[in-house]
Amino acid sequence: MSWDRLQLKPQIISAVQRAQLRSAQEVLCVSGPDLQKVTGLSRSDVQDLLHAAAAAACRARPPVTALQLQRGECHRLESGLRLGTGCPVLDGLLRGGLPVGGVTELSGESGAGKTQLGLQLSLSVQYPVEHGGLSAGAMYICTEDPFPIKRLQQLISEQRVLRSDVPPSVIGGLRFSDHIYVEHSADLDSLQVCLSRRAPLLLAQGLVRLVVVDSVAALFRSEFQADDWLERNKQLLTFASMLHHLSQEFTTPVLCINQVTDVFNQSSSSVSSSSSSVSPALGLAWANQVTVRLMMQRLQGTVVRGDQSSALRRLEVVFAPHLARGGRDVGVWREGLRGVLDPA
């Protein structure tokens, strides 16, 4: 390709040519630190190169109009194909589970149970379609905390408790931990490489059918200052475009776990918890890219079942083209999230 078309600085173009990187895809296959080594460029120049390469890769894909995107997502939302959660109460709220088209956001405060649901879905996707799965694995991208391997192992050991509706022979034949592909992205550069190269490879081979990003806000909050909002929004749009292309091209659900920010009630002079609420992080630029928005809250009550107790949570549908607004109370148990029909 002609690097001159990307409007890069001359020294960046010369360094790329010396390193014999011939295409945007080749650049995106290399991490930021490795690009610095092979090109001799500064970190800021490497970031400019990666951003330009990601934009070129997006332009190389067949163009999709807003109407085509809307029609495609609506068709998938109404097609009936869903990724179940493994809990009948939550599946009832979500009309069967996560849709295979578009991006689903799950936001909430720390400790609300967001990662718990992400792990549960990473196991659920491995079940056959007749049991709410998609007969494939999951790609789990961690951007801040280490992957919770001990909790995953506990969920795997308790699958027969959670999924009593599934024959034990089916559960026994699934090697759950072998089909969860964990990636750690410490910066936006490595996240772009992951989404533009590794994810399409796993999806094209049929190894995965779910992509989880935990969490989407972490990198955008850490890499941009308040004055950089315009550049941050540009990067958010590029990121969202990559997620939607993955979902559309491979008919796969994408789950983005998001943090929240405090929203204070200006009519109150105090800043106590009673005068504030929370909203999903990253503002309208991100909200407009989300197909389904869910929110989890940790409530004041406690629920008890047998020898277990759990802080009461609530999963709410904030907006979705195919769902009515509403929510269900849930508890976090050894076997995973389960709806609480009667918290009393």
UniProtKB/TrEMBL annotation:
<dbReference type="GO" id="GO:0033065">
    <property type="term" value="C:Rad51C-XRCC3 complex"/>
</dbReference>
<dbReference type="GO" id="GO:0045003">
    <property type="term" value="P:double-strand break repair via synthesis-dependent strand annealing"/>
</dbReference>
<keyword id="KW-0539">Nucleus</keyword>
<dbReference type="InterPro" id="IPR016467">
    <property type="entry name" value="DNA_recomb/repair_RecA-like"/>
</dbReference>
<dbReference type="GO" id="GO:0000722">
    <property type="term" value="P:telomere maintenance via recombination"/>
</dbReference>
<comment type="similarity">
    <text>Belongs to the RecA family. RAD51 subfamily.</text>
</comment>
<keyword id="KW-0963">Cytoplasm</keyword>
<keyword id="KW-0234">DNA repair</keyword>
<keyword id="KW-0067">ATP-binding</keyword>
<dbReference type="GO" id="GO:0000400">
    <property type="term" value="F:four-way junction DNA binding"/>
</dbReference>
<dbReference type="GO" id="GO:0090656">
    <property type="term" value="P:t-circle formation"/>
</dbReference>
<dbReference type="InterPro" id="IPR047348">
    <property type="entry name" value="XRCC3-like_C"/>
</dbReference>
<dbReference type="GO" id="GO:0140664">
    <property type="term" value="F:ATP-dependent DNA damage sensor activity"/>
</dbReference>
<keyword id="KW-0238">DNA-binding</keyword>
<dbReference type="InterPro" id="IPR058766">
    <property type="entry name" value="HHH_XRCC3_RAD51B"/>
</dbReference>
<dbReference type="InterPro" id="IPR020588">
    <property type="entry name" value="RecA_ATP-bd"/>
</dbReference>
<dbReference type="GO" id="GO:0005657">
    <property type="term" value="C:replication fork"/>
</dbReference>
<comment type="function">
    <text>Involved in the homologous recombination repair (HRR) pathway of double-stranded DNA, thought to repair chromosomal fragmentation, translocations and deletions.</text>
</comment>
<dbReference type="InterPro" id="IPR027417">
    <property type="entry name" value="P-loop_NTPase"/>
</dbReference>
<dbReference type="Pfam" id="PF26169">
    <property type="entry name" value="HHH_XRCC3_RpoA"/>
</dbReference>
<protein>
    <recommendedName>
        <fullName>DNA repair protein</fullName>
    </recommendedName>
</protein>
<keyword id="KW-0227">DNA damage</keyword>
<keyword id="KW-0547">Nucleotide-binding</keyword>
<feature type="domain" description="RecA family profile 1">
    <location>
        <begin position="79"/>
        <end position="260"/>
    </location>
</feature>
<dbReference type="GO" id="GO:0005524">
    <property type="term" value="F:ATP binding"/>
</dbReference>
<dbReference type="GO" id="GO:0071140">
    <property type="term" value="P:resolution of mitotic recombination intermediates"/>
</dbReference>
<dbReference type="GO" id="GO:0005737">
    <property type="term" value="C:cytoplasm"/>
</dbReference>
<dbReference type="InterPro" id="IPR013632">
    <property type="entry name" value="Rad51_C"/>
</dbReference>
<dbReference type="Pfam" id="PF08423">
    <property type="entry name" value="Rad51"/>
</dbReference>
<keyword id="KW-0233">DNA recombination</keyword>
